[in-house]
Amino acid sequence: MSTDLHCRSCDRTYDASAEEPWRCLCGAPLDYAERSLPGRNTPPVARSIDRNLGLWAFQEFLPEPPLVTLNEGFTPLVDADGWNAQFKLEYLFPSGSYKDRGATLTLSRAAALDVDKVIEDSSGNAGAAIATYAARADIEADIYVPADVKQSKLVAIQRAGARPIRVEGSREDVTDACLDAVEGADGERSEGPQQTGTGWYASHAWNPAFYAGTATMAYEIAAQREWSVPDALVVPLGHGTVLLGAYRGFTALREAGYTDRIPRLLGAQAVGYDPIASELHDDNDVDEDAPESALTEALGNSDRPPETNDLADGIQIRSPAREEQLFEAIERTNGDAIALDSDDVESELDRLHRNGFYVEPTSAVATAALHAYRERGVLSPDADVVVPLTGSGMKTL
């Protein structure tokens, strides 16, 4: 199949190459011009899938060949009785987070295009994943990170042989510095999408290969449940790589005839970094009869105190790259997004640790949101729910 890129907004198409733009000339994100789908048929029996291939067992759904892989994928799906849900243990990937799903596809694309060097900006997990798979591919990597990045994430990048570049300022400042390098700007960065600088932009927020990778979570969940679909997924929401990946994956499964529906997609953001939740929940959306708690006060309404959740550093994103696509996915699945504060996340993180799930705070945002959604009646107590635990607690050291 073609791996050319296409813009949904203005209908431009770009040929696949090491010089391909990181976004469209119109400013919109790019996606694959053709979708990878098997012929519409009955799914293979789950036990017949070769799990030794990891997520690449679903090659018919994937737009890239497995050129750069560590046989990642098929993370455990376990019952979490204390939460009346199933947890997908995504923190058991080689680099310690679900970002390896996107990294293996992104670096496979880079290898197919004969890219010499990749550049990424990240709060830590995506950078560690891109660095890990760049090392596997023997491709040079520069990873732009916040100056106060967690030491464990910085070490993971360095030990993989990548070059971390620490940037003072906000998370947005990190992205701007990275794009200056990508576009070869001297001084003020150009608004164009070209990649004429020092490397190929392996962005977890913009690169369509990354989302093709995160979609594999949906394929695995369906296969591990004998091709049944849960009622809902509750996921952490920053740039939306989990939520959009799940939407695309479950959509592809339905279109291929493997499943018959798409679960509700319920996002969990951090207070102060919650553009999706704030847009969805204005004053008119607040349920006056809802229980009074920190969880229900953190839904993006105007009465919320002007504070930020600085504990969940993995989702501190104020301007998601694919915001329009996120709203579309939430609307089409009857989904939602809410925001939680640090206190809610800290207590939930302690509960997860005491139950044997050693995860980082961003994972606790999702399980805390599960409680909030049930508290508000968005989810019934007996709803069939899957929650991905996205990052290892080792990343907090």
TrEMBL record:
Per its UniProt record, what SUPFAM superfamilies does this chain match?
Tryptophan synthase beta subunit-like PLP-dependent enzymes
Coiled-coil features, chain-numbered ranges: none
- Composition bias (Acidic residues) maps to 282-291
Signal sequence interval, chain numbering: none
Q: Which UniProt keywords apply?
A: Lyase, Pyridoxal phosphate
Q: Which InterPro entries match?
A: Ser/Thr_Dehydratase, Ser/Thr_deHydtase_PyrdxlP-BS, TrpB-like_PALP, TrpB-like_PALP_sf
Highest taxon above the source species? Archaea
Q: Where is each Tryptophan synthase beta chain-like PALP domain found?
A: 68-391
Cofactor(s) needed, names only, are: pyridoxal 5'-phosphate
Q: Does the keyword DNA-binding apply?
A: no
One MF annotation (Gene Ontology) recorded for this entry:
threonine deaminase activity
- Region Disordered, residue ranges: 279-312
Q: Name one GO biological process term.
A: isoleucine biosynthetic process
Q: What is this protein called?
A: Pyridoxal-phosphate dependent enzyme
- Source organism of this protein record: Natranaeroarchaeum aerophilus
Organismal lineage: Archaea, Methanobacteriati, Methanobacteriota, Stenosarchaea group, Halobacteria
